[in-house]
Structures are given as structure tokens and as C-alpha cells.
Amino acid sequence: MSDTANIVMPLEQEGSKSVVRVWLKRVGDAVKRDEPIVELETDKVAVEVPAPADGVLASIALNEGEEAAPGATLGVLTLRVAAADRRLPAGTPANTQSVEAKWPAGSRPSEGEREARLSPLVKRLLSDHKLDAADVNGTGRDGRITHKDVEDFVARGKAMPAAKPAPAAIVGGRVPHDAMRRSIAEHMSRSVATAPHVTAVFEADFSAIAAHRTKHKDAYARSGAQLTYSAYIVRAAAEAMKVSPNVNARWHDDFLEVFEDANIGMGVALGDKGLIVPVIQRAQTLTLKETATKLTDLAERARKNALKPADVQAGTFTISNHGVSGSLVATPIIINQPQSAILGVGKLEKRVVVRTIGGADAMVIKPMAYVSLTIDHRVLDGHQTNAWLTRFVENLETWPLEDEQ
């Protein structure tokens, strides 16, 4: 039996590429099986790779900032059973126990230096718990703060530090691109260069679903599901695939791959960091309540940077609910390659519209939003695009759907 074990990059990844974000252990540190040992980052998700066995980190094959291909060896563990009677290589720290690293007196890094060393996951945890990085001792490599350090700090019931005044805004200067921003840029540029984008815009009356939501949202909340407008939008989009299946398809040079399952991704903004697109698998099989439950779970974990790779994989269609940040129309919304279409939903606002009431036209106030479908014109034409949007709008305006009665 081998006395070493490779730390291997997962074979499946979602995103254009993976980059080693931070090593959580240094060479010579002891690790336990399934303990996070290195953090990877793509344009879609940050993920921690666990140790495959108990042992000691013997070597690092890919350094921080280097690209990691699927199946690549990230590092090597010396298994603990073999390490007991073996001296570590020359130059390796003698201790093999995980100890709390503290900065020597007079050498504590500046606040800016500590911030630059934090992983996206740790930053999000600190923000969620309103903590200052300076109050948490790091046990990771070179004193880095790990997600476990933050969770242990919270579990010990430490009092939340008083809020500090926000630093003055820095005008000008250069902000280095992180791995996620670079990957998003590459993905968007490649999509525009690959697919001829065309966008159609319709208007939707949200009166029916607003009334339904008002009636049922409290009952959904008691069961742990937030009944948001997004749940209705996902359900209406999945049902609209029946009239235009090619919206849920993928272009290949020699054929069109049309999917039976509508795996619908919903973009979740991560502030200045970018966005991530968790996927609701087989959305066409879900009820409104099941959809709301899945959306609640995925959105919460996305904002905590706690999504697993499977949560962002296998998407066949994407929704951009850009209206939550105030825009009425965004066009074109860049297609999430290799998909063939993306739905945009603008800001919901009350507008004056004309309706026929009692045989006469009348001006009434309705909750309205512009909805758009941006398509890959190699896959879809205007007729198919408009047929899909027509059914989608009808689903919203005549809610509930037949199978939601």
C-alpha cells in the first residue's frame, strides 16, 4: 500500500477555469481526513478541497494563483501511519500538529494586508457575523484565517465588536482583478464572440401572481420557503419550454441538442465580487412550493459562499432578475454559454395601462415589468422567441398554472 496520497483537483468543474486561491495548510502541517486543505476559485463558485486521508502535507504541486486543470495533482500527503516513523524532509517544520498561529509582537500585518489574505469564503463569513478580521486568530498557513477559525470564534460566543466607521472612499488607483472577475470577463467575451445575440422585449402584468403571493406567502414562510417572485418566474419559464423547446437547447457544429430537463439557473449578485448562478435541476417537475424551497436554500448558500460544485452545474437555461437592482430593461443580457437563451426580468413597478373594462377602454394602475429573451440566433428565430415569451407572459398573467390549481 502506498504511504502517500495525492490531493487531486475534482474531475468536474463549472466555470471557464479553476485557480488555486489559497492553501489552508503549509508543508509539514498535520491534517485530518476531509479537513479543508486548499481553496479553489472559478468564475462561478469557490470550493474547498478536503484532505483525502489523515496525514502530513508533504509537498505542494500548484501554488496560489496557478491554474488547476480537472484531475491535476494539487499536492501530496504523507499518510499518518507511515509518517509516524519517518523524519520529514530537511527544511520542513518539525511540528506536525495543527497549532494556532499568532503574529509575533511588533510584526502584526496591517489591516489592508490582512484583508488581501482573506479568501472569499472567509470574507463572507466575517461580513455575515459582523466581525473584524483583526479579532480572529488564524490557524491556517502563515497565520491565515480559515472558515473554521471564524466558525469557532462565533461558536465560542464572542461578543460582536463595535462597528467601526467606514474608511474614506479611495478615488482612482488600480484594483487588481481577482480570479472570479477575470473568469467572468473571459466567459462574457467568448459568449459575445461565439453567438449572434438578438433580444426581444415583452411587457408582463404581475397582478395575478401578486395576489396569489399575498394570499400564500405566510404559509410558505412557516414551512421554511420564501415565496418570492423569482419562484413564479422559474415555474412560468419551465412551463413555457413546451411551446418552444429549442429555447432549452445547445448548439453543436453538426446538430442541435435539445434537453428534456429544464435545469434553470438564477443569477445571484455577490456585490462587487460579481455574480453566481445556482441551478434548479429539473425545474419542469417542481411545484411552486418546491421551487420556492430550492430557491431559498440556493440563494442563502450562494451569499454565504457555501455552494457545492453540483449546485452550479448542468444548467440549460438562465434567468437574470436584473430588476431587483432597479433597471427597467437590460439588453442584450449576455448568454451563459453554451446555452441558447437567457431571460431578463426588469424592475416591477406600478404603471398606468389601458384595459378594456365593461366593453370600454379604461386607464388602470397595474404592477408591470419588462421581460426580455436574448437568444443565440443560430439556434432560434424570431417566431420561436416570441412564441416562448408569449406563453411565459400568459403564465404570469393567468396564474395559477393548470398543475398549480
From TrEMBL:
Subunit: Forms a 24-polypeptide structural core with octahedral symmetry.
Annotated region (Disordered), positions in chain: 89-116
Cofactor: (R)-lipoate
Any one GO MF annotation of this record: lipoic acid binding
Keywords annotated in UniProt: Acyltransferase, Lipoyl, Transferase
Name this protein carries in UniProt: Dihydrolipoamide acetyltransferase component of pyruvate dehydrogenase complex
Positions of the Peripheral subunit-binding (PSBD) domain: 117-154
Similarity field: Belongs to the 2-oxoacid dehydrogenase family.
Native source organism of the sequence: Terricaulis silvestris
InterPro entries hit by this protein: 2-oxoA_DH_lipoyl-BS, 2-oxoacid_DH_actylTfrase, 2-oxoacid_DH_E2_comp, Biotin_lipoyl, CAT-like_dom_sf, E3-bd_dom_sf, PSBD, Single_hybrid_motif
Keyword hit for Acyltransferase: yes
GO cellular component: cytoplasm
Residue stretches making up the Lipoyl-binding domain: 4-78
Gene3D superfamilies noted in UniProt: 2.40.50.100, Chloramphenicol acetyltransferase-like domain, E3-binding domain
Top class in the EC scheme: transferase
Enzyme Commission number(s): 2.3.1.-
